[in-house]
Amino acid sequence: xxxxxxxxxxxxxxxxxxxxxxETLSSLLTADSSRPKRYTASAAGIHLxxxxxxxxxxxxxxxxxxxxxxxxxxxxxxxxxxEAINTSEGRAVLxxxxxxxxxxxxxxxxxxxxxxxxxxxxxxxxxxxxTIKSHSGEAFTDVINLGIxxxxxxxxxxxxxxxxxxxxxxxHFVANLDPTEMHNVLxxxxxxxxxxxLSSKSYSTMETQANAEAAVAWLTTHFKNSDIAAIKAAHFCxxxxxxxxxxxxxxxxxxxxxxxxxxxxxxSLWSAVGLSIAIAIGEAKFREMLQGAHExxxxxxxxxxxxxxxxxxxxxGVWYTNFHGAQTHGVISYSERLRYLPDYLQQLEMESNGKCxxxxxxxxxxxxxxxxxxxxxxxxxxxxxxxxxxxxxxxxLDIISVSAQDNIVxxxxxxxxxxxxxxxxxxxxxxxxxxxxxxxSLREQWQAKPSYSHFPASRPNSRIHLDALTPHTLGALxxxxxxxxxxxxxxxxxxxxxxxxxxLGKVMFGSMK
Length: 513
Ligand SMILES: O=P(O)(O)OC[C@H]1O[C@H](O)[C@H](O)[C@@H](O)[C@@H]1O
Prior knowledge:
By secondary structure, this protein is an alpha/beta fold. The chain has a domain at 97-285: Glucose-6-phosphate isomerase like protein, domain 1 (Rossmann fold), CATH 3.40.50. The chain has helices spanning 8-19, 25-31, 35-38, 57-69, 72-81, 108-128, 153-161, 179-186, 206-223, 228-235, 243-249, 275-302, 309-323, 341-353, 385-390, 416-433, 440-447, 471-492, 503-512; strands at residues 40-43, 46-49, 142-146, 170-174, 194-199, 236-240, 256-258, 328-334, 371-376, 397-402, 461-466. The longest helix is centred in the middle third of the chain and has 28 residues, at 275-302.
């Protein structure tokens, strides 16, 4: 049980960093042209090229030692086996059990998962095929998920990403307390055919409760009657760990879907919190998503470090945060369908690892989670890429792309999808190698320009490429980031599974009301 900077491997990495300070990504490539081939790893339809990083084989083996010293294997066994590794709340962390990856011996856990899945899949199917009717006896055309944080961001990301696969009804999301968000979503919807999912693990989140009351008011105004109980019963369902509170609010038990205590909010999209996803894409595709995540779980447990996607992303993040002083991490998706990925990852990584005390409650003496930000390529190229290329801070990036032929609107004669992919590669090379990556004639022209047009380059980035954006690869992609987050928490020796930092503001609000 040690903070990482007490480990021999940490000291070795520190020395190694100083000894390699003059290396650049261009000099590393010149010294070893096999990097682009060797520094790659693939799993579950996701390919990682990590050749554009300020590392070499020695860096990798030092990190291998650090992982051993921080007992990566032991912590993996604890999490997958169901030990209560969220010590401040005394809870196991078993989201992996929701996708068939539980390694413990309690047969009640897979049985509970199967039972809940069966229940919410059946309900989702009945909403999809119109068997479940509204108060006025109609099929539902629209479903609104009312939830915030982990009860919003995952389902919102997935429903947007897989939108082309969506059959009727349409799925919408309302998270914020600002009534404008709900107003904008409700505009143009028919209350008579709109179903609400009240999604809140704790059922103590005031934003979701307030929005649920606003939804009731919208419905009862439409139905011009006071039979609120019947309207609620017909137009609401719920996902929560607090079924008692939900049913006393007026939702019948058969429409309440549970979420075990051992699923953390930001890891919960695989559970009944994914009801909106199941309504949007159906059970078969939901199961494909679970399978993709399961494959990533097995990969994380079994692949060696130099081929292990989550572990590589974790050590690269630690390398820049703790040895290069990086304070941020950027995620740029060259796919509109991944629009909500940075939002999702902000909660996943920053709420998990934005901690300043270790597992024993002692202050940490090293940096933990960087600030994560991101956006879409190519639009961000025309906004913040200036700073990425020529700014004074090191900002490590994940540059994510999807094969052009997978683009839903790609067709012959329209080169936009292919050009989008090319831009991902061009930016990755330009950031890493600067003008060195240009053909000779162009390079010479560029080098003749004044200093304001010079590129420092050596800006590290991971290229993450998906053969196709399917429920399977999306499940694997999210699981990859979950395990990256978990492993960074292991290295930093912090509890990645609580979030006490969000509580004070809530209490402060309560004391002012
Ligand atoms: O699902 P709920 O219990 O409503 O919680 C919603 C969210 O709010 C909390 O304040 C936490 O910061 C999040 O981790 C959580 O996902």
